[in-house]
Design the sequence.
């Protein structure tokens, strides 16, 4: 059954939309943010939210009976800032934060990164210009989009740092490496949200664009759902379901409102 469903909705277009729309009560939708829902930006604080995307997300929540969640490496507070006034069900920092009720409070599922580890990670910026360190509470990210040649040195330093803290691991994304608690991932985040009343009994659709999304994508498939890939630095266009974040937004806008064809 999974193979048939994947064939029907694996490429953008009316056939995929019709399959999901005709069976909306079957599906729970989980969406990564950076590179999937929003275009990648040169810096985390330079992200742009397209016009009408908030309206689209609100429409999706209504269309799918509340079974819509963000699954992101960002903090939940970042998602709130992007999509104000929506406060969606969200798994943040690779499963280390969660809001399980729309509009509710955020629960911290892991302790903050130890100060000595933070100091060691911040020192990585001294390897050369273009490295950006982003603190995320339970995690810390090293962005190297402007310093790609320094990746081997960054990887060596992070391996040395986490050797002292065996409860942490490094998860990779698009030009970013993130130190996060080993016990958490986007997969654990999706698993927890699937137990919520609005999601329980549905088939998960996880949309993602990079390696950090794969634990959630694999879990969605194991649960009888779908893993939809966005082309980019990780997923080749030939195997991806969407060409870009813009095509994801276009599909979501039509899913939220079948009468509207203009992308978000």
Sequence:
């Amino acid at each position: 059954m999974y193979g048939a469903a994947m064939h029907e909705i694996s490429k953008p277009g009316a056939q995929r939309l019709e399959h999901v729309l005709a069976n909306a009560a079957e599906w729970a939708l989980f969406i990564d943010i950076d590179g999937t829902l929003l275009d990648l930006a040169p810096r985390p604080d330079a992200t742009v939210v397209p016009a009408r995307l908030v309206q689209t997300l609100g429409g999706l929540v209504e269309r799918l009976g509340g079974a819509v969640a963000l699954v992101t490496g960002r903090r939940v507070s970042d998602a709130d800032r992007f999509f104000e006034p929506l406060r969606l069900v969200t798994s943040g920092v690779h499963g280390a934060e969660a809001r399980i009720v729309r509009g509710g409070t955020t629960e911290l599922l892991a302790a903050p990164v130890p100060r000595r580890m933070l100091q060691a990670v911040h020192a990585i910026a001294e390897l050369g210009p273009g490295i950006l360190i982003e603190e995320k509470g339970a995690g810390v990210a090293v962005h190297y989009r402007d310093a790609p040649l320094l990746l081997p040195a960054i990887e060596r330093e992070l391996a040395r740092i986490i050797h002292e803290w065996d409860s942490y691991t490094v998860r990779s994304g698009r030009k970013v490496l993130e130190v996060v608690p080993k016990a958490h991932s986007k997969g654990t985040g999706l698993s927890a949200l699937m137990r919520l009343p609005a999601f329980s009994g549905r088939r998960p659709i996880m949309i993602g664009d990079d390696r950090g999304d794969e634990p959630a994508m694999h879990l969605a498939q194991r649960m009888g759902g779908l893993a939809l890939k966005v082309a980019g630095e990780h997923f080749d266009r030939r195997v991806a379901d969407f060409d870009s974040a813009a095509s994801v937004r276009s599909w979501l806008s039509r899913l939220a409102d079948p009468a509207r064809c203009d992308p978000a």
Q: What stands out?
A: The radius of gyration is 18 Å. The longest strand covers residues 168-173.
